[in-house]
Amino acid sequence: MFNIRSFIGLQNVISRFPSTQRHLKLIYPHFSTVQPVPEYKISDEDITRLKRKFASPRNIISNFYNQVERTQNIKTGCHFGFNKNKKNQWNCKLSVQWPNPIVFSSVATTKAKAGEIVSLNAIQWLQDMEKLDHSGKPLIVSNKERIDVATSPIASIDLSEQSVKLISSLVQKYNQEIKPLINKGKLTLIEDDENKEDDLNFVLPSFSHFDYTNRNEYLYKKTTQTLSGLVQLPIDNYELDLLEMIENNRITIIKGEPGCGKSTRVPNFIMKKWSQEKRGSECNIYVTQPRRISALTLANRVAEERSEELGNVVGFQVRLKQILPRKPGSIVFASSGILLQKLQADPGLREFSHVIIDEAHEQDINTEILLMLTKNALQLNDKLKLIIMSATLNAEHFQNYYGSSATTIEIPGFTHPVKTQFLSVHYKC
């Protein structure tokens, strides 16, 4: 009768003694043993380096293998296992079967720390295998596989005579009806402004690195022709000073009284400057608001001041609703929670040139965490500029927190004159 305990004991003996394996193969040619799965481990210095770069390594690994299973329709065998040893420490073991079978293990004082260490090992291994990029985004197909596909011979297709005639008629129709309209500039992806000025009718396709010149030209003309004649606000008198401070400092703290125009004008000041320098496509501004309604209202107001519709240069992104602008060259108003989600995927916020945290005096948990994580993002991204705005913040407190890299400016507010009248004066009892 088959005895499972005897079988397990035999497997242990076979795995320990290679000579036993050789003898069994001579007696039984079809005998095979399970090869041990290799283990991958990186140095403590690499662990420290990756910790600074990836805030949630376990989420990155889980999301990566979920995407592989969903898109490739394969079982990756990704499994985290935890147990406590005799020293009351946590052992964590991560095993995967894709792209190759491998094991990662760690020992730490807490369960979360043990899981973090094995995840960082897995991230480094996947980057070595060219399955993750430097920011932790999946590369399901490696660069070598891309090159192999690109250089492989083109397959030939035999088309029926009817299909050839249909394709020829479509090409002929395009050349006769569609192409002349494009050459005359009658097709545009942007709705004309109310003044119907022809020189603003630019075609804005989805942008790649080949489209930066066209985008810069559009932003330059749009800025110089539409950002004039606006109602004067107190902050307009400080435009040049503000832009100089933002240019020369990593962190700018703006203490502006209510009504000074900081929430609507500061993003436009920055975009205007970069557009006039013909580098508007490099300017991507992300403005956070503590409430959804504020993000929606400000996005509409800034788009109105630019005489354009939402979704071109200005957009918004809140929970369950968004109208994102065309990139590159954009201003996005969002709730604080949305930026926190972006920080999980990219702690360095490399897709933005400026991050503006508005209403920083509100002591909600999202704003407090944002202030901490954006300080870390400045260390990971040398090109990022951080702007903190509020009406009642303690500028000295923020200055001490961010150190010498921060500078502060105060903007006076604007209030309408109020006259008090008493009914008792007009209506005597």
TrEMBL record:
InterPro entries: DEAD/DEAH_box_helicase_dom, DNA/RNA_helicase_DEAH_CS, Helicase_ATP-bd, P-loop_NTPase. Gene3D superfamilies: 3.30.160.20, P-loop containing nucleotide triphosphate hydrolases. Keywords: ATP-binding, Helicase, Hydrolase, Nucleotide-binding. The keyword Nucleotide-binding applies. GO terms for cellular component: cytoplasm; nucleus. One of its GO terms (molecular function) is G-quadruplex RNA binding. It comes from the Eukaryota. Pfam families: DEAD (PF00270). SUPFAM superfamilies: P-loop containing nucleoside triphosphate hydrolases (SSF52540). Residues 243-411 form the Helicase ATP-binding domain. PANTHER family: ATP-DEPENDENT RNA HELICASE, ATP-DEPENDENT RNA HELICASE DHX30. This is Putative ATP-dependent RNA helicase DHX30.
